[in-house]
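pasting input
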Amino acid sequence: MKKGKIVGLEGSFAIAEAVRMVNTDVISSYPITPQTHIVERLAEMIADGELDAEFICVESEHSAMSACVGASAAGARVFTCSASQGLELMHEVLYIPSSMRLPVVAVTANRALSAPLSVWCDHSDAMAIRDIGWIQIFAENNQQAFDLTVCAYRIAEDKEVLFPAMVHIDGFYLSHVIEDMVLPDDEEVADFIPEYEHPFVLDPESPVSMGCYGPPFIYTEAKKAQEVAFGKSKYQILETWKEFGETFGRYYSPVETYKMEDASIALLTMGSIGETAMLAVDEMREGGKDVGLIRLRLWRPFPFTELREAVKDVELLVVLDRAISSGMGGPVCSEVKSALYDMREDLRIVGFIGGLGGRDITIEVFKYMVNRALEYPEKEEEFEIIDVRE
Amino acid sequence: MPEKYSLFVPRLITKEENFAPGHRACIGCAEALAVRHVCKALGKNVIIVNATGCIEIFSSLFPQTSWQVPWIHTLFENVGAVVSGVEAAYQARIRKGRIEDRRVKFVGFGGDGATADIGLQPLSGAMERGHDFLYCCFDNEAYMNTGIQRSSSTPYGAWTTTAPAGKQSIGQITWKKNLPEIAVAHRIPYVATACPSYPFDLMDKVKKGLEIGGPAYIHILSPCPTGWRYPPNLSIKMGLLAVETGVFPLYEVINGEYRLSFDFPNLKPVREYLKEQGRFRHLTDDIMEAIQERVDDEYLKLMERVK
């Protein structure tokens, strides 16, 4: 088992280390409202000669993703990161690498969307890009941010996959917080990440046309081929995480559970709030409630099988969303309900929305959610925004 | 005599078509002709990044392609950024010893909408950062692919579907944005104007722009029978008239030094150019006079810079 060394690292710096260790070729980024330290640290590494890469300081997030697309099509291993308004500005471009099978790797430090202007954490930006066709993974702490970024390269660049991958980390809660974590040696990571070679590259020696115009006779076929391949990527995701676990001793799975063995009530969270939720579960268990916790690690492709397995003995599922789908409720809750709809009739799913724009979610808030869900078997409303002044 | 080249010059031009025939451009499309000439001058050792627009639509309808060289299209407005990424990828891969340096050239193609309007910012960014690439703007003076909507490159007084001429309007009420001057303001090593009516001059400029090292910009007037409303057999004549009237002077700016490609001591009246085109047929004498004054004024300013 590889050990590495224990270090104290900010989440942003941990990701920069991952990007350096996999020997990324091209990095492109823009500092919209504001950037994280990820690209600042990468720029520093390049300036100090620790990483040999081209750093393109583009003039917008739209161009940041466009430059990544160009670089990836020309055979480079690429990276960018963004958040909130920046992710929204690059929205149009996000569909390109997934449709053109270019394994761009990106990190999003999840933040709220304007207006009002808020640079603080929630999942509004992530929920606005659910359908872009990227592999999307949510990290819970800085260790995971590092590990899952390393894994994202290997998954995305696998010749059976060739889809872009995005690791979501909670803005500020992870991006700007220093935690202790295990940092593997450079060689250990290098051994885990094979040399990148895309089967189709822009090269005058073997010309290809990329991004051709698809009229109605072929568009549906192209999208189905993409969707089938995307679904199959789950196999490589599981394989990569398994091998990562065997190599580095830290295992990941699409749906991770905590004290779910005998739980009749389950909380469901995504991102860094899972750690607070674990403490809440412990306290509620001391108070006599058999509560457990489900954390969605893999967001796309959606882990239907694993989620159904996790809730098979649960009577009440309480879902916390950190974003609003206006007029609909919490987007994660909607998807969970849809994924479990035809599974069991006696499973009640209750959605809450909280933690918007950097509002902290405490243990007490989780207790409130569970009590509220128990008290009101037939809620009048479809969802409730919690911890809010009226 | 439209060009100063001798008769044997055409024989030096490759017969190879890197932009293959069989594409779906309109009859008489001068843009397709310009692309064909540009691709002859570019040769095989290039990668082309193309914006959404006429060229992309008529050349790449799946499963066919006209491109005999590597070619990528992604979106409308991001050619400057995509070509930056392609160039950076080659720089990094060569430096890291993963591929050998075969001196591949990087080229961006866009129409006037993709260049003057929606794609101006990424192009400006790429020129400012100094990537080694050539950008060709194929200017047919409106959004022709989507149905002749006005762009900031549409000339004053022209009819378009979004700036139509009517009882209360002469059509386009703004003067054509000067893209070559915007490129010059970036202090890049090479800027030129060209037109497929002058094919050897066009090819010469493409070769210069490709070899100069650093960003190069060529603005190519591409007459459009569909959008300009003239018979398709007159495309070459339209380009000649645009140059001979001073509406679209051909010049190059090498490291800030202006050079006029073709000098006409006596410019033809602008009216001769305007009267051939349906998009200008509603113009009254006083509007045509205003256009003449503007053309004269702009031409004088250019001549001052050439001196």
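fyi Chain A has two domains: 5-248, 255-385.
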